[in-house]
Amino acid sequence: MSDGDEQQSLSQSIKGRLQEGVQNSVFKDKGLLDPDTVIDEDRIVGRDQQLDDIITYLRPALQGNRPPNMLLYGPSGTGKSLIINAVCQQVQELANAQGDRFGVIRVNCQTIKSHDRAVYRLVESAAIGVGVDPGVPESGVSTDQKLNRFYEILSENFDSVIIILDEVDLLVGRQRDPNDEPAYSKLLYQLSRASQLGRIEGDVSVAALTNDPRFMENLDGRAESSFNPQDIVFPDYDANQLQAILGRRRDAYRDNVLEDGIIPLSSAYAAQDHGDARKAIDLFRKAGEIADRQGEDRVREEHVRGAQKEAERDRTLTQMQGLSTQKKLSLYATAIVPVYSQRNLNAVPSTVAYRVYQYITDILDTDEKSRDSYLRYMSEAETYNFVTSDKRGRGYGSGVHKEYTFVDDPEVVAETLQSDIRLEEIENDEDLIRSVVNAQIDDFFDGK
Ligand SMILES: Nc1ncnc2c1ncn2[C@@H]1O[C@H](COP(=O)(O)OP(=O)(O)OP(=O)(O)O)[C@@H](O)[C@H]1O
């Protein structure tokens, strides 16, 4: 066969396999179950009170008046972003139809590290929305200059604007002292004052979204009085409401591929976990992904249970990232033993793991804790269900040692821990560590 033939058959085989995946999928329109998809209003279930309230508050925007500021609060996945965005979209359409310039500026505060960055993100978001240059650089100019540019863009382009600050409570900023005003407090003060003082020509109001029911308690007094929002509460969903939400997205799947119990089971799991619609939708989608992966043409309850297990595992890994450095190092040293071992090793002897731990602390030039501390950290890892342990004798007179077995894949555990900043430093020493691990294993099993 010539190179050209081989090339063609490879590309045909890739195409064939890709098409097979599409044709055999249980999904018809998987995008409907994407957490970031903006769904049509006819798929929104319930939340009538919240919709009514927000419509009432935003109506003035269509009458040439300033809407009040709003605070939307409730646990994650209870529809805060969905509902405010749905109403804003309708206001925008009506405003356009009557020739008013209504703008919506959205910023998610989750990853914003400082007040200055938040102001820049507002400039950027406003500039992109109206298609102009931000006009200020990200760094090298004062926050006030950025703020002024933001007001300028708003004044030039809008009669009325809603600024949506999602996850506003996470915009804490760099507080040198715990008594320092959090960044969100300063920002809310500035935005609401600017509007009241006429520093922006149009009407501006802020909708702040948060999971924290005590958010207002953390605002500085002057921020609290100038922001002064209308509250809109989003309570947890119960299992029935979640079932209705999933029911309206059933057509994400092909006809007749869903077993009867899929929607109730996904909803029941999510209802146990504080009634989070995002979680219900994730489980509903992941169950189908598992069915696809296994090449099955129906989604069964077992797939939902598998999806729930995967979600739990992801959560465990997230939890692990919150451990102190010494606990991470202990767990990491233990996890890489089976990962690097040339033998088929399921249970990790504590003696081996502790020596690997000592070696790693040495490379990192960090504190080396005693063997007792290592064992204590590992028993904590056991209560978190990262590992299970067993005591084993090594024959007469050799004493007893502990062995650890990982509940999840030790490779995933090691990778998760390695992505921690300090552990990344040892990536270059991988070969060396691998040989140390194997030397310790050999010593343990073959030594006297
Ligand atoms: N009443 C509802 N009807 C239909 N879908 C809903 C409803 N409530 C929430 N959802 C869906 O659940 C997911 C999460 O909703 P949303 O992002 O609005 O929650 P949130 O309260 O803003 O969460 P967070 O606080 O985590 O940002 C989205 O995919 C959304 O489409």
Write the layout of secondary structure elements.
Blueprint: H1 3-23, H2 48-58, E1 70-73, H3 80-97, E2 102-108, H4 115-130, H5 143-157, E3 160-166, H6 183-196, E4 203-210, H7 221-227, E5 230-233, H8 239-247, H9 262-272, H10 277-293, H11 301-320, H12 325-340, E6 348-349, H13 350-364, H14 371-383, E7 387-393, E8 400-406, H15 410-418, H16 421-424, H17 430-446
Parallel strand pairs: 1-4, 1-5, 2-3, 3-4
Antiparallel strand pairs: 6-8, 7-8
The site of adenosine-5'-triphosphate has 23 residues, from helix 3 and helix 10.
Proportion of helical residues: 40-55%
- How far apart the termini lie comes to 59 Å
What is the N-to-C succession of helices and strands?
HHEHEHHEHEHEHHHHHEHHEEHHH
Percentage of β-strand residues: 5-15%
